[in-house]
Specification:
Elements: H1 3-13, E1 19-20, E2 43-45, H2 50-62, E3 66-70, E4 86-90, E5 97-101, E6 106-110, H3 115-124, E7 127-128, H4 141-147, H5 154-157, H6 160-163, E8 164-170, E9 176-179, H7 193-196, E10 205-212, E11 214-215, E12 220-227, H8 230-242, E13 246-254, H9 255-264, E14 278-285, H10 291-302, E15 308-311, H11 315-326, H12 328-335, E16 337-344, H13 350-364, E17 370-376, E18 381-388, H14 394-414, H15 433-436, H16 439-452
Parallel strand pairs: 2-4, 3-4
Antiparallel strand pairs: 1-2, 5-6, 6-10, 7-11, 8-9, 8-10, 12-14, 12-15, 13-14, 13-17, 16-18, 17-18
The chain binds flavin-adenine dinucleotide, D-malate and zinc ion.
Protein backbone atom coordinates (compact mmCIF):
# COMPACT_ATOMS: atom_id res chain seq x y z
CA UNK A 1 0.00 0.00 0.00
CA UNK A 2 1.25 3.48 -0.83
CA UNK A 3 1.17 4.68 2.77
CA UNK A 4 2.76 8.07 2.16
CA UNK A 5 -0.03 9.24 -0.17
CA UNK A 6 -2.72 8.13 2.29
CA UNK A 7 -0.89 9.51 5.32
CA UNK A 8 -0.54 12.87 3.54
CA UNK A 9 -4.31 12.99 3.15
CA UNK A 10 -5.07 11.85 6.71
CA UNK A 11 -2.68 14.54 7.98
CA UNK A 12 -4.97 17.13 6.42
CA UNK A 13 -8.00 15.65 8.20
CA UNK A 14 -6.84 14.52 11.64
CA UNK A 15 -5.58 16.73 14.45
CA UNK A 16 -1.86 16.56 15.31
CA UNK A 17 -0.70 13.38 17.12
CA UNK A 18 -3.75 11.53 15.90
CA UNK A 19 -2.02 9.26 13.40
CA UNK A 20 0.12 6.40 14.61
CA UNK A 21 2.27 4.55 12.15
CA UNK A 22 5.26 3.71 14.33
CA UNK A 23 5.34 -0.09 14.61
CA UNK A 24 5.96 -0.12 18.37
CA UNK A 25 3.27 2.44 19.23
CA UNK A 26 0.56 0.99 17.00
CA UNK A 27 0.87 -2.38 18.79
CA UNK A 28 -1.64 -1.25 21.41
CA UNK A 29 -4.43 -1.20 18.80
CA UNK A 30 -5.85 -3.73 16.37
CA UNK A 31 -6.15 -6.49 18.95
CA UNK A 32 -8.46 -7.47 21.78
CA UNK A 33 -8.68 -9.80 24.80
CA UNK A 34 -8.42 -12.87 22.51
CA UNK A 35 -4.89 -11.94 21.35
CA UNK A 36 -5.86 -13.34 17.96
CA UNK A 37 -3.81 -10.83 15.97
CA UNK A 38 -1.29 -12.33 13.56
CA UNK A 39 0.07 -9.03 12.26
CA UNK A 40 -0.49 -5.40 13.23
CA UNK A 41 -2.64 -2.73 11.58
CA UNK A 42 -1.13 -0.66 8.81
CA UNK A 43 -1.68 2.47 10.86
CA UNK A 44 -4.02 3.87 13.49
CA UNK A 45 -6.18 6.98 13.18
CA UNK A 46 -7.60 8.68 16.26
CA UNK A 47 -10.28 11.11 15.05
CA UNK A 48 -11.62 13.74 17.44
CA UNK A 49 -14.99 14.46 15.85
CA UNK A 50 -17.76 12.88 13.79
CA UNK A 51 -16.73 15.10 10.87
CA UNK A 52 -13.21 13.67 10.98
CA UNK A 53 -14.58 10.11 11.02
CA UNK A 54 -16.76 11.02 8.05
CA UNK A 55 -13.87 12.46 6.01
CA UNK A 56 -11.69 9.43 6.83
CA UNK A 57 -14.36 6.95 5.75
CA UNK A 58 -15.20 8.90 2.57
CA UNK A 59 -11.53 8.72 1.57
CA UNK A 60 -11.25 5.03 2.52
CA UNK A 61 -14.38 4.28 0.51
CA UNK A 62 -13.05 6.08 -2.58
CA UNK A 63 -9.66 4.37 -2.26
CA UNK A 64 -10.88 0.89 -1.23
CA UNK A 65 -9.05 1.00 2.10
CA UNK A 66 -10.21 -1.43 4.76
CA UNK A 67 -10.91 -0.13 8.26
CA UNK A 68 -11.35 -1.75 11.66
CA UNK A 69 -13.14 0.23 14.40
CA UNK A 70 -11.49 -0.08 17.82
CA UNK A 71 -13.06 0.70 21.17
CA UNK A 72 -11.44 -0.38 24.42
CA UNK A 73 -10.16 -3.67 22.87
CA UNK A 74 -11.66 -5.82 25.62
CA UNK A 75 -13.79 -7.80 23.17
CA UNK A 76 -13.82 -11.58 23.41
CA UNK A 77 -14.51 -12.52 19.80
CA UNK A 78 -11.62 -10.92 17.90
CA UNK A 79 -13.88 -8.18 16.51
CA UNK A 80 -11.27 -5.42 16.94
CA UNK A 81 -8.43 -7.44 15.39
CA UNK A 82 -6.73 -5.76 12.42
CA UNK A 83 -4.14 -7.14 10.01
CA UNK A 84 -1.38 -5.46 8.07
CA UNK A 85 -3.33 -3.92 5.19
CA UNK A 86 -6.07 -2.58 7.47
CA UNK A 87 -6.41 0.81 9.14
CA UNK A 88 -7.61 1.02 12.72
CA UNK A 89 -10.04 3.82 13.50
CA UNK A 90 -9.84 4.24 17.24
CA UNK A 91 -12.51 6.13 19.16
CA UNK A 92 -10.14 6.76 22.12
CA UNK A 93 -10.12 10.54 21.57
CA UNK A 94 -13.89 10.89 21.19
CA UNK A 95 -14.49 10.44 24.90
CA UNK A 96 -16.72 13.32 26.02
CA UNK A 97 -19.87 13.03 28.07
CA UNK A 98 -21.85 15.68 26.22
CA UNK A 99 -24.92 16.09 28.41
CA UNK A 100 -26.82 14.46 31.24
CA UNK A 101 -30.54 15.18 31.19
CA UNK A 102 -32.08 14.66 34.62
CA UNK A 103 -35.61 15.25 33.35
CA UNK A 104 -35.69 12.74 30.51
CA UNK A 105 -33.22 10.51 32.44
CA UNK A 106 -30.68 10.17 29.66
CA UNK A 107 -27.06 10.86 28.85
CA UNK A 108 -25.56 11.83 25.50
CA UNK A 109 -21.98 10.64 24.95
CA UNK A 110 -19.30 10.31 22.34
CA UNK A 111 -18.68 6.68 21.47
CA UNK A 112 -15.18 6.50 22.95
CA UNK A 113 -16.20 7.32 26.50
CA UNK A 114 -15.18 4.63 29.00
CA UNK A 115 -18.19 2.80 30.43
CA UNK A 116 -17.18 3.38 34.06
CA UNK A 117 -17.07 7.14 33.44
CA UNK A 118 -20.74 7.07 32.41
CA UNK A 119 -21.57 5.08 35.56
CA UNK A 120 -19.72 7.63 37.71
CA UNK A 121 -21.30 10.67 36.05
CA UNK A 122 -24.74 9.12 36.44
CA UNK A 123 -24.05 8.52 40.14
CA UNK A 124 -23.00 12.14 40.64
CA UNK A 125 -26.42 13.11 39.31
CA UNK A 126 -28.17 10.68 41.66
CA UNK A 127 -28.90 8.37 38.72
CA UNK A 128 -27.69 4.96 37.59
CA UNK A 129 -26.29 3.54 34.33
CA UNK A 130 -26.94 -0.17 34.54
CA UNK A 131 -24.49 -1.70 32.03
CA UNK A 132 -21.92 -3.23 34.33
CA UNK A 133 -19.11 -5.62 33.45
CA UNK A 134 -15.70 -6.43 34.84
CA UNK A 135 -14.13 -4.65 31.83
CA UNK A 136 -15.93 -1.37 32.69
CA UNK A 137 -12.69 0.50 33.38
CA UNK A 138 -11.42 -0.12 29.81
CA UNK A 139 -14.33 -0.84 27.48
CA UNK A 140 -16.09 2.00 25.66
CA UNK A 141 -19.75 2.80 25.10
CA UNK A 142 -19.26 2.41 21.31
CA UNK A 143 -17.77 -1.06 21.86
CA UNK A 144 -20.60 -1.95 24.25
CA UNK A 145 -23.15 -0.92 21.61
CA UNK A 146 -21.30 -2.62 18.75
CA UNK A 147 -21.22 -5.88 20.74
CA UNK A 148 -24.61 -5.38 22.43
CA UNK A 149 -22.89 -6.11 25.74
CA UNK A 150 -24.82 -7.97 28.42
CA UNK A 151 -23.06 -8.01 31.75
CA UNK A 152 -23.86 -8.38 35.41
CA UNK A 153 -27.17 -6.53 35.71
CA UNK A 154 -28.91 -7.93 32.64
CA UNK A 155 -31.52 -9.73 34.75
CA UNK A 156 -32.85 -6.39 35.96
CA UNK A 157 -32.16 -3.90 33.17
CA UNK A 158 -31.46 -5.87 29.98
CA UNK A 159 -28.37 -5.39 27.81
CA UNK A 160 -26.96 -2.48 25.84
CA UNK A 161 -29.78 -2.61 23.27
CA UNK A 162 -32.27 -1.80 26.01
CA UNK A 163 -30.30 1.31 27.02
CA UNK A 164 -29.94 2.96 23.60
CA UNK A 165 -32.36 5.80 22.87
CA UNK A 166 -30.48 7.30 19.91
CA UNK A 167 -27.34 6.82 17.84
CA UNK A 168 -25.14 8.75 15.47
CA UNK A 169 -23.34 6.52 12.99
CA UNK A 170 -20.98 7.17 10.08
CA UNK A 171 -21.56 4.85 7.12
CA UNK A 172 -18.83 3.30 5.00
CA UNK A 173 -19.01 6.09 2.36
CA UNK A 174 -18.76 8.83 4.99
CA UNK A 175 -22.49 9.62 5.25
CA UNK A 176 -23.39 10.77 8.76
CA UNK A 177 -26.61 9.08 9.88
CA UNK A 178 -28.12 11.15 12.69
CA UNK A 179 -30.52 8.95 14.65
CA UNK A 180 -29.44 10.52 17.92
CA UNK A 181 -32.77 11.96 19.01
CA UNK A 182 -34.09 11.83 22.55
CA UNK A 183 -37.46 10.44 21.43
CA UNK A 184 -38.80 7.57 23.52
CA UNK A 185 -41.48 6.80 20.95
CA UNK A 186 -40.95 6.92 17.22
CA UNK A 187 -42.79 4.38 15.08
CA UNK A 188 -41.92 5.86 11.71
CA UNK A 189 -40.89 2.88 9.66
CA UNK A 190 -37.90 0.65 10.37
CA UNK A 191 -35.89 1.58 13.44
CA UNK A 192 -32.47 1.45 11.77
CA UNK A 193 -30.44 2.14 14.91
CA UNK A 194 -31.10 -1.41 16.09
CA UNK A 195 -29.18 -2.79 13.11
CA UNK A 196 -26.00 -1.15 14.41
CA UNK A 197 -26.43 -2.51 17.93
CA UNK A 198 -24.52 -5.78 17.94
CA UNK A 199 -23.16 -5.27 14.40
CA UNK A 200 -19.53 -5.38 15.63
CA UNK A 201 -18.33 -2.52 13.46
CA UNK A 202 -19.40 -4.17 10.19
CA UNK A 203 -22.18 -1.71 9.22
CA UNK A 204 -20.96 1.68 10.40
CA UNK A 205 -18.88 3.50 12.97
CA UNK A 206 -20.86 4.60 16.02
CA UNK A 207 -19.79 8.14 16.96
CA UNK A 208 -22.40 9.27 19.50
CA UNK A 209 -25.18 7.74 21.54
CA UNK A 210 -27.97 8.79 23.83
CA UNK A 211 -28.48 6.28 26.60
CA UNK A 212 -31.12 5.71 29.24
CA UNK A 213 -30.36 6.35 32.87
CA UNK A 214 -32.50 4.96 35.65
CA UNK A 215 -33.14 6.02 39.25
CA UNK A 216 -30.38 4.90 41.59
CA UNK A 217 -31.20 1.65 43.39
CA UNK A 218 -32.35 2.42 46.95
CA UNK A 219 -30.02 0.05 48.75
CA UNK A 220 -28.17 -2.88 47.23
CA UNK A 221 -27.89 -5.99 49.36
CA UNK A 222 -25.36 -8.52 48.19
CA UNK A 223 -24.82 -12.05 49.40
CA UNK A 224 -22.59 -14.97 48.49
CA UNK A 225 -24.43 -18.25 48.60
CA UNK A 226 -23.11 -21.83 48.50
CA UNK A 227 -24.92 -24.58 46.60
CA UNK A 228 -24.44 -28.35 46.50
CA UNK A 229 -26.19 -28.81 43.12
CA UNK A 230 -26.71 -26.73 39.99
CA UNK A 231 -30.47 -27.27 40.34
CA UNK A 232 -30.38 -25.59 43.76
CA UNK A 233 -29.22 -22.41 42.02
CA UNK A 234 -32.26 -22.52 39.76
CA UNK A 235 -34.66 -23.28 42.63
CA UNK A 236 -33.26 -20.30 44.54
CA UNK A 237 -33.67 -18.08 41.50
CA UNK A 238 -37.26 -19.20 41.09
CA UNK A 239 -38.01 -18.55 44.78
CA UNK A 240 -36.48 -15.08 44.60
CA UNK A 241 -38.72 -14.26 41.64
CA UNK A 242 -41.76 -15.77 43.37
CA UNK A 243 -41.16 -13.72 46.50
CA UNK A 244 -40.90 -10.50 44.47
CA UNK A 245 -37.30 -9.70 45.31
CA UNK A 246 -36.05 -6.84 43.23
CA UNK A 247 -33.14 -8.84 41.81
CA UNK A 248 -30.36 -6.73 40.28
CA UNK A 249 -27.90 -9.60 39.71
CA UNK A 250 -27.70 -13.36 40.12
CA UNK A 251 -24.33 -14.74 39.07
CA UNK A 252 -22.84 -18.18 39.64
CA UNK A 253 -19.39 -19.80 39.55
CA UNK A 254 -18.05 -23.28 40.11
CA UNK A 255 -15.61 -24.44 42.80
CA UNK A 256 -12.85 -24.63 40.17
CA UNK A 257 -13.50 -21.01 39.11
CA UNK A 258 -13.25 -19.96 42.74
CA UNK A 259 -10.03 -21.91 43.30
CA UNK A 260 -8.31 -20.25 40.31
CA UNK A 261 -9.54 -16.79 41.30
CA UNK A 262 -8.21 -17.26 44.82
CA UNK A 263 -4.85 -18.41 43.49
CA UNK A 264 -4.33 -15.20 41.48
CA UNK A 265 -5.80 -12.66 43.93
CA UNK A 266 -4.07 -12.50 47.27
CA UNK A 267 -6.76 -10.28 48.76
CA UNK A 268 -9.54 -12.64 47.73
CA UNK A 269 -11.68 -13.75 50.67
CA UNK A 270 -12.82 -17.29 51.49
CA UNK A 271 -16.55 -16.83 52.07
CA UNK A 272 -17.14 -20.16 53.85
CA UNK A 273 -15.25 -22.59 56.06
CA UNK A 274 -15.52 -25.38 53.53
CA UNK A 275 -15.64 -25.59 49.76
CA UNK A 276 -18.87 -26.12 47.80
CA UNK A 277 -19.47 -27.22 44.19
CA UNK A 278 -21.16 -23.92 43.28
CA UNK A 279 -21.39 -20.36 44.52
CA UNK A 280 -23.82 -17.59 43.71
CA UNK A 281 -23.65 -13.84 44.04
CA UNK A 282 -27.14 -12.53 44.64
CA UNK A 283 -27.74 -8.80 44.62
CA UNK A 284 -31.10 -7.17 45.19
CA UNK A 285 -32.40 -3.69 45.68
CA UNK A 286 -34.25 -3.18 48.90
CA UNK A 287 -34.62 -1.23 52.09
CA UNK A 288 -31.54 -0.17 53.97
CA UNK A 289 -31.70 -3.22 56.19
CA UNK A 290 -31.20 -6.63 54.65
CA UNK A 291 -33.48 -8.63 56.97
CA UNK A 292 -35.73 -9.74 54.09
CA UNK A 293 -32.82 -11.32 52.22
CA UNK A 294 -31.48 -12.77 55.45
CA UNK A 295 -34.82 -14.38 56.23
CA UNK A 296 -35.07 -15.73 52.70
CA UNK A 297 -31.61 -17.29 52.87
CA UNK A 298 -32.32 -18.82 56.30
CA UNK A 299 -35.51 -20.37 54.92
CA UNK A 300 -33.63 -21.68 51.86
CA UNK A 301 -31.00 -23.16 54.17
CA UNK A 302 -33.72 -24.96 56.14
CA UNK A 303 -35.25 -26.45 53.01
CA UNK A 304 -31.74 -27.39 51.80
CA UNK A 305 -31.60 -25.36 48.57
CA UNK A 306 -28.84 -23.24 50.05
CA UNK A 307 -25.89 -24.83 51.88
CA UNK A 308 -24.40 -21.67 53.35
CA UNK A 309 -24.68 -17.93 52.85
CA UNK A 310 -23.11 -14.66 53.87
CA UNK A 311 -24.44 -11.13 53.44
CA UNK A 312 -22.22 -8.07 53.05
CA UNK A 313 -22.68 -5.68 55.95
CA UNK A 314 -20.55 -2.79 54.68
CA UNK A 315 -19.12 -1.46 51.44
CA UNK A 316 -15.79 -3.32 51.86
CA UNK A 317 -17.59 -6.64 52.27
CA UNK A 318 -19.81 -5.72 49.33
CA UNK A 319 -16.72 -5.21 47.14
CA UNK A 320 -15.05 -8.38 48.48
CA UNK A 321 -18.03 -10.55 47.57
CA UNK A 322 -18.34 -9.03 44.08
CA UNK A 323 -14.59 -9.49 43.54
CA UNK A 324 -15.07 -13.26 43.85
CA UNK A 325 -17.08 -13.10 40.62
CA UNK A 326 -15.55 -10.12 38.82
CA UNK A 327 -11.96 -11.38 39.04
CA UNK A 328 -12.63 -14.75 37.39
CA UNK A 329 -11.86 -13.76 33.78
CA UNK A 330 -8.58 -12.08 34.54
CA UNK A 331 -7.49 -14.91 36.87
CA UNK A 332 -8.19 -17.46 34.16
CA UNK A 333 -6.01 -15.52 31.73
CA UNK A 334 -3.19 -15.50 34.30
CA UNK A 335 -3.63 -19.23 34.91
CA UNK A 336 -2.84 -20.44 31.40
CA UNK A 337 -4.45 -21.00 27.98
CA UNK A 338 -8.16 -20.22 27.88
CA UNK A 339 -10.78 -20.94 25.27
CA UNK A 340 -14.31 -19.66 25.86
CA UNK A 341 -17.77 -20.82 24.92
CA UNK A 342 -20.34 -18.19 25.83
CA UNK A 343 -23.68 -19.94 25.56
CA UNK A 344 -27.35 -19.39 26.43
CA UNK A 345 -30.24 -21.75 26.53
CA UNK A 346 -33.75 -20.81 27.53
CA UNK A 347 -33.94 -20.70 31.32
CA UNK A 348 -36.68 -23.33 31.57
CA UNK A 349 -34.33 -25.82 29.84
CA UNK A 350 -31.19 -24.86 31.75
CA UNK A 351 -31.47 -27.67 34.29
CA UNK A 352 -31.76 -30.37 31.62
CA UNK A 353 -29.00 -28.77 29.58
CA UNK A 354 -26.67 -28.67 32.56
CA UNK A 355 -27.41 -32.33 33.35
CA UNK A 356 -26.35 -33.42 29.83
CA UNK A 357 -23.35 -31.07 29.83
CA UNK A 358 -22.12 -32.49 33.11
CA UNK A 359 -22.62 -36.07 31.92
CA UNK A 360 -20.40 -35.71 28.89
CA UNK A 361 -17.82 -33.52 30.64
CA UNK A 362 -17.50 -36.20 33.34
CA UNK A 363 -17.09 -38.86 30.66
CA UNK A 364 -14.42 -36.80 28.87
CA UNK A 365 -12.54 -35.89 32.08
CA UNK A 366 -9.45 -34.69 30.25
CA UNK A 367 -6.05 -35.08 31.87
CA UNK A 368 -4.73 -31.56 31.14
CA UNK A 369 -7.82 -29.49 30.32
CA UNK A 370 -10.03 -28.13 33.07
CA UNK A 371 -13.55 -26.91 32.37
CA UNK A 372 -14.46 -23.85 34.40
CA UNK A 373 -18.07 -22.69 34.62
CA UNK A 374 -19.42 -19.31 35.62
CA UNK A 375 -21.78 -16.68 34.32
CA UNK A 376 -25.07 -14.92 34.30
CA UNK A 377 -27.27 -17.81 35.35
CA UNK A 378 -30.44 -15.73 35.70
CA UNK A 379 -30.20 -15.00 31.96
CA UNK A 380 -29.54 -18.65 31.03
CA UNK A 381 -26.00 -17.56 30.10
CA UNK A 382 -23.15 -19.89 31.04
CA UNK A 383 -19.49 -19.13 30.28
CA UNK A 384 -17.87 -22.48 29.62
CA UNK A 385 -14.11 -21.94 29.81
CA UNK A 386 -11.55 -24.56 28.86
CA UNK A 387 -8.17 -23.98 30.41
CA UNK A 388 -4.75 -25.60 30.65
CA UNK A 389 -1.40 -24.64 32.10
CA UNK A 390 1.11 -23.34 29.55
CA UNK A 391 3.17 -26.52 29.95
CA UNK A 392 1.43 -27.65 26.74
CA UNK A 393 1.66 -25.65 23.53
CA UNK A 394 -1.26 -23.48 22.43
CA UNK A 395 -1.67 -25.69 19.34
CA UNK A 396 -2.01 -28.89 21.38
CA UNK A 397 -4.36 -27.14 23.81
CA UNK A 398 -6.64 -25.89 21.02
CA UNK A 399 -6.62 -29.22 19.19
CA UNK A 400 -7.84 -30.98 22.35
CA UNK A 401 -10.35 -28.24 23.16
CA UNK A 402 -11.89 -28.57 19.68
CA UNK A 403 -12.86 -32.16 20.44
CA UNK A 404 -14.65 -31.27 23.67
CA UNK A 405 -16.06 -28.02 22.34
CA UNK A 406 -17.75 -29.69 19.38
CA UNK A 407 -19.90 -31.73 21.71
CA UNK A 408 -20.74 -28.70 23.88
CA UNK A 409 -21.80 -26.67 20.86
CA UNK A 410 -23.93 -29.44 19.42
CA UNK A 411 -25.63 -29.75 22.78
CA UNK A 412 -26.38 -26.02 22.61
CA UNK A 413 -27.84 -26.50 19.12
CA UNK A 414 -29.93 -29.44 20.34
CA UNK A 415 -31.39 -27.17 23.02
CA UNK A 416 -31.98 -24.40 20.41
CA UNK A 417 -29.61 -22.16 22.37
CA UNK A 418 -27.11 -19.52 21.28
CA UNK A 419 -23.39 -20.21 20.74
CA UNK A 420 -22.62 -16.58 21.56
CA UNK A 421 -24.82 -15.07 24.22
CA UNK A 422 -23.07 -11.73 24.70
CA UNK A 423 -19.51 -11.76 23.28
CA UNK A 424 -20.50 -11.64 19.60
CA UNK A 425 -19.13 -13.53 16.59
CA UNK A 426 -16.21 -11.36 15.46
CA UNK A 427 -13.41 -13.31 13.86
CA UNK A 428 -13.20 -16.35 16.07
CA UNK A 429 -16.77 -17.61 16.11
CA UNK A 430 -17.64 -17.31 12.43
CA UNK A 431 -17.45 -21.08 11.95
CA UNK A 432 -20.17 -21.69 14.51
CA UNK A 433 -22.62 -18.94 13.51
CA UNK A 434 -24.73 -21.45 11.57
CA UNK A 435 -25.34 -23.46 14.74
CA UNK A 436 -27.53 -20.67 16.07
CA UNK A 437 -28.74 -18.89 12.92
CA UNK A 438 -30.63 -20.39 9.94
CA UNK A 439 -29.39 -20.18 6.34
CA UNK A 440 -32.15 -17.66 5.63
CA UNK A 441 -31.07 -15.47 8.54
CA UNK A 442 -27.44 -15.57 7.38
CA UNK A 443 -28.47 -14.76 3.80
CA UNK A 444 -30.44 -11.72 5.00
CA UNK A 445 -27.49 -10.63 7.16
CA UNK A 446 -25.22 -10.77 4.08
CA UNK A 447 -27.70 -8.68 2.09
CA UNK A 448 -27.87 -6.09 4.87
CA UNK A 449 -24.07 -6.00 5.01
CA UNK A 450 -23.93 -5.43 1.22
CA UNK A 451 -26.45 -2.62 1.27
CA UNK A 452 -24.68 -0.76 4.12
CA UNK A 453 -21.13 -1.50 3.01
CA UNK A 454 -21.19 -2.32 -0.73
CA UNK A 455 -17.39 -2.25 -1.06
CA UNK A 456 -16.84 -4.40 2.04
CA UNK A 457 -14.37 -1.98 3.65
CA UNK A 458 -15.85 -2.00 7.19
CA UNK A 459 -14.33 -4.56 9.54
CA UNK A 460 -13.87 -7.11 6.75
CA UNK A 461 -14.11 -10.80 7.63
CA UNK A 462 -15.95 -10.23 10.89
CA UNK A 463 -19.26 -12.01 11.67
CA UNK A 464 -19.88 -13.22 8.08
P1 LIG B 1 -13.66 -3.56 21.33
O1 LIG B 1 -13.15 -4.83 21.88
O2 LIG B 1 -12.68 -2.50 21.02
O3 LIG B 1 -14.51 -3.86 20.02
C1 LIG B 1 -15.54 -4.80 20.01
C2 LIG B 1 -16.24 -4.78 18.64
O4 LIG B 1 -16.93 -3.56 18.49
C3 LIG B 1 -15.29 -4.87 17.47
O5 LIG B 1 -15.91 -5.58 16.44
C4 LIG B 1 -15.08 -3.41 17.05
O6 LIG B 1 -14.77 -3.30 15.69
C5 LIG B 1 -16.44 -2.83 17.37
N1 LIG B 1 -16.44 -1.42 17.76
C6 LIG B 1 -15.82 -0.86 18.83
N2 LIG B 1 -16.11 0.46 18.90
C7 LIG B 1 -16.93 0.72 17.86
C8 LIG B 1 -17.58 1.90 17.38
N3 LIG B 1 -17.46 3.07 17.99
N4 LIG B 1 -18.35 1.79 16.26
C9 LIG B 1 -18.50 0.62 15.63
N5 LIG B 1 -17.92 -0.51 16.03
C10 LIG B 1 -17.15 -0.46 17.13
N6 LIG B 1 -18.99 -8.69 27.63
C11 LIG B 1 -20.28 -8.82 28.02
O7 LIG B 1 -21.18 -8.72 27.17
N7 LIG B 1 -20.60 -9.05 29.32
C12 LIG B 1 -19.68 -9.16 30.29
O8 LIG B 1 -20.00 -9.39 31.46
C13 LIG B 1 -18.31 -8.99 29.93
N8 LIG B 1 -17.34 -9.04 30.86
C14 LIG B 1 -16.04 -8.89 30.49
C15 LIG B 1 -15.06 -8.95 31.47
C16 LIG B 1 -13.72 -8.82 31.12
C17 LIG B 1 -12.67 -8.90 32.20
C18 LIG B 1 -13.37 -8.62 29.76
C19 LIG B 1 -11.94 -8.45 29.37
C20 LIG B 1 -14.34 -8.56 28.79
C21 LIG B 1 -15.69 -8.71 29.13
N9 LIG B 1 -16.70 -8.64 28.17
C22 LIG B 1 -18.01 -8.77 28.55
C23 LIG B 1 -16.37 -8.47 26.75
C24 LIG B 1 -16.15 -6.99 26.32
O9 LIG B 1 -15.79 -6.20 27.39
C25 LIG B 1 -17.40 -6.43 25.68
O10 LIG B 1 -17.65 -7.12 24.49
C26 LIG B 1 -17.35 -4.92 25.39
O11 LIG B 1 -18.62 -4.47 25.02
C27 LIG B 1 -16.33 -4.56 24.31
O12 LIG B 1 -16.14 -3.16 24.32
P2 LIG B 1 -14.78 -2.51 23.77
O13 LIG B 1 -14.93 -1.04 23.82
O14 LIG B 1 -13.63 -3.09 24.48
O15 LIG B 1 -14.81 -2.99 22.27
C1 LIG C 1 -17.90 -12.24 32.32
O1 LIG C 1 -19.09 -12.46 32.51
O2 LIG C 1 -17.09 -12.16 33.27
C2 LIG C 1 -17.45 -11.97 30.94
O3 LIG C 1 -18.38 -12.23 29.97
C3 LIG C 1 -16.06 -12.36 30.64
C4 LIG C 1 -15.79 -13.80 30.36
O4 LIG C 1 -16.65 -14.52 29.89
O5 LIG C 1 -14.63 -14.20 30.57
ZN1 LIG D 1 -20.31 -12.52 30.84
Amino acid sequence: MDNSKHLDYFNTVCSPHSIISDSKLKKSWGDDWTKERKSGPNFVLLPQSTEEVSKILKYCYENNLKVVPNGGRTGMAGGAVACDDEIVISLDKMNKIIEIDTVSLSVCVEAGVITQNVQEQAKKNNLFFPIDLAAKGSCQIGGNIATNAGGLKFVAYGGMREQVIGLEVVLSDGTILDMNSNLRKNNTGYDLKHLFIGSEGTLGIITKARLKLVPKPRHLNVSCVAFEKFDDILSTLQQLHQKNFSLTAFEFFSAKAHKITKAYNQDSIEPFEKSYPFYGIIECDGDTNDSQLEEFLAESFENSHVSDATIASNSQEFANLWALRENISESLSNHGWVHKNDITVSIDKLSLFYQELEEFLTKKNHDFIDVILFGHVADGNIHINYTAKKTVTKEIFLEEVKKIEQETLHLVKKFKGSVSAEHGIGLIKKDILALSRSADEIRLMSEIKKSFDPKGILNPGKIL
